[in-house]
Amino acid sequence: MYPERPAGIAYGGDYNPEQWPREVQEEDVALMREAGVNLVSLGLFSWALMEPAEGRYAFGWLDEIIDRLHAAGIAVDLATPTAAPPAWFVAGHPDVLPVTRDGIRIGFGGRQSACSSAPAFRAATARLVRALGEHYRDHPAVVMWHVHNEYGAPLGECYCEHSLVAWRDWLRRTYLDLGALNEAWGTTFWGQHYTEWHQIDLPGFNHTVVNPAQRLDFARFSDAEHREHYILQRDILSELTPGLPVTTNFAGTVNCKSADLWQWARELDVIANDHYLKAERPDNHIDLAMSADLARSVAGGEPWMLMEHSAGAVNWQPRNIAKRPGEMRRNSLAHVARGSDSVLFFQFRASRFGAEKFHSGMVPHAGTSSRQWREVVELGADLRRLAGVRGSRVEAEVAVVWDWESYWALELDWRPSVDLTFRERVDAFYEALWREHVTVDFVHPSADISGYRVVVAPSAYLLAESSAKNLHRYVEAGGHLLVSYFSGIVDEHDTIHPGAHPGALREVLGLSVEEFHPLREHETVAVDGFPGKIWSERVNLAGARSVRDFTGGPDAGHPAVTRHDLGAGSAWYLATAPVTGLRELLGEVLDHAGVTRPRGLPDTLELVRRGRHLFLINHGGEPVTVAGVTGTALLDGTRCDGSVTVAAGAVSVVLDDTPHQGEPG
To answer: How far apart are CA 54 and CA 180, in angstroms?
Structure first.
């Protein structure tokens, strides 16, 4: 359920007028109109002003601001401010402050500073949200609700006394009896067998490794507690304002490790994502694209909201590099290209005080005479020209498996190599696909994947038997699966699948792995066609055939890349991490599967089709001409009759006159 208003692409962002005097607030509204802002998020951290003392609500100051915005035609995404409990509340309930894994209770003054399991916090949340919902239920400016802020970041897990009570309750509901829990956790190891529920403690700091199955379940529990806190608020707001969508903003889909967004998606009316560039990464636009594709995928292919990104530099990275001319425009339109129906920033006006005073705003400290403000105004005009994009979808022929539970499990202690990280392999495969100009969806391994020509599983360490069977059926029915090493190893309890590795995937891959051979830091291993890093292993064929062999290292003469023709499809396996050559290998799989994609274009050009709109974003320093494009370039109104040239650092969006004649090339 996407908000009906504003029309077209939503433009604006977080607005914190409580930091400014009235004359600045009035100036802000005039500047919003100049820039084309049509939606702002209000109240994210304003609990102390909304409820200055327990049970005494003060909304008059907010009424004035919302009325002023409404008179200017600007819609409001009204937030519940529960990410920043006030000092009076914490002073009365110091037990709500979270406790870290090593037993330290945090102090007051940050954000996300209350445990989601604390009864006093939940009760205060419910009272405040009901008062807020009742007060604004009929205000015409309020078009949606924004619950809390970035659940799980920075507070992922809490180890306080309230978490312990909730943890034991969650375990009782999940396992029903201790016998099932003992079996799932493998408690015969190290004498951990439990005979009473109260014997189960939090998996806090230990001088050695804590049971990984217990820690995996604690990650699930912690995420579920945050989700319950969200649902508490959502249900109150949905009761009071049944026609308004309710959402919360994720702290960057690809970076939000502590939240299983496949689970969260079931509870949100619209998916909202925050994204901030990794400023020092030269090709950070690829990470941006990945975050946007994952947000769209979590939304089930429906339009989603870019709830936050930055107009310029952020303030919390080691080196906060400002965006160069044109970079904000490229960033913003790349999100739109990949399914966002909004371009929203943190924040409208840069703060003069507080922890984020060096974080950029749409209105920077330099004011409206700055390049940044001019680009903000120009972007607003661009988005008005792209109003017709709203509601359209992005289609993909290739999917990448992403499972947060596998992410959690893989990165627990005592794995075969410290270099085995979830994002390392996923990032490598995504980057290669991006440079091949292939648009991808992300999928859970249990999802319906029948519509994809190729499914890539870069990091499926944890794979339930049911998910493995899903991949097997996909291949037999004509799909093409590419799996990277150390996948299919454990089940949902972090228990090794029986038999040789890769347990759950042996049959579909047509092979077994006799032994892992992790490589030393900076060590490489020779493969026919490319060098590998991080990993090598002894692969024994059992129906598959070798495509490339190791030519050096501990597995010289044995398969490094295999292919298993099964039913109408094929399953490929890669037993190392290519230093170079991954893109070529992926190209071989894509060609085998008949995946269409542009040829001969530089890999600095981002090319995405959204409905009838073709987005071409040039991240390089030279102009690029793309053939096979006919239509109207919406940003400058020019006509494209067979080709379009995109200047260095520029963006072109072409409304295709012949959307069914294939891809440009």
So the answer is: 44
Active-site residues, by number, are 150, 308
Exposed / middle / buried, residue 129 (Cβ in 10 Å: 0-12, 13-18, 19+): buried
- State pLDDT tens for residues 553-610: 999 999 999 999 999 999 999 999 999 999 999 999 999 999 999 999 999 999 999 9
DSSP β-ladder status, 613-618 and 605-610: antiparallel
Nearest in space to 38 (alpha carbons), one of 64, 77, 95: 77
**Average pLDDT over every residue of 298-326:** 97
CA distance 433 to 427: 10
Quote the crossing angle between the two packed helices 178-185 and 212-240, to the nearest 10°. 120
Q: Do the beta carbons of residue 347 and residue 16 sit within 8 Å?
A: yes
pLDDT surpassing 60 at residue 661 = no
Query: What residues have CB less than 8 Å from 417, skipping those under 6 apart?
Result: 518, 519, 534, 535
Q: What is the pLDDT of residues 334-375, one digit of tens each?
A: 999 999 999 999 999 999 999 999 999 999 999 999 999 999
Q: What is the pLDDT of residue 662?
A: 44
Structure token digits, residue 303: 């339009």
- Which of 88-125 are b and which e, b meaning 16 or more Cβ less than 10 Å from the residue's Cβ? ebbeebebbbbbebeeeebeeeebbbbbbbbebbbebb
Angle, helix 60-71 to helix 22-35, in steps of 10 degrees: 30
CATH topology of domain 10-168+226-389: TIM Barrel (3.20.20)
Query: What is the torsional sign of CA 549, 555, 558, 561?
Result: negative
Q: Is 354 exposed, middle or buried (0-12, 13-18, 19+ CB in 10 A)?
A: exposed
Q: pLDDT tens digit string along 151-210?
A: 999 889 999 999 999 999 999 999 999 999 999 999 999 999 999 999 999 999 999 999
For 654, the token pair is 């072409």
> 525, 550 in Cβ contact below 8 A?
yes
Mean per-residue pLDDT for 214-226?
Answer: 98
Asked if 631 and 656 touch (Cβ cutoff 8 Å), the reply is yes
- Residue 645: CB partners within 8 Å, gap ≥ 6? 623, 624, 625, 626
Give the residue from 623, 587, 591 showing the smallest Cα distance to 605. 623
CA–CA separation, 267 and 225 (whole Å): 13
User: CATH topology for 398-593?
Assistant: Rossmann fold (3.40.50)
Task: Report the distance separating Cα 303 and Cα 338, nearest Å.
Answer: 9
Q: What single letter denotes the amino acid at residue 125?
A: T
Q: How far apart are CA 187 and CA 211, in angstroms?
A: 8
What does DSSP say about strands 272-274 and 249-250: parallel, antiparallel, or unpaired? parallel
| Side chain identity at residue 181, one-letter code | L
Hey, which residues does 398 pair with through a beta bridge? 440, 454
Residue extents of the structural domains in the chain: 10-168+226-389, 398-593, 605-656
Enumerate residues 6+ apart whose C-beta is below 8 A from 399: 440, 441, 442, 443, 449, 452, 454, 455, 456
The CATH number assigned to the domain with range 605-656 reads: 2.60.40.1180
Measured distance CA(415)–CA(654) in Å, rounded:
48
Cα 181 to Cα 170: distance, rounded to the nearest angstrom: 12
Neighbours of 4 (CB within 10 A): 12
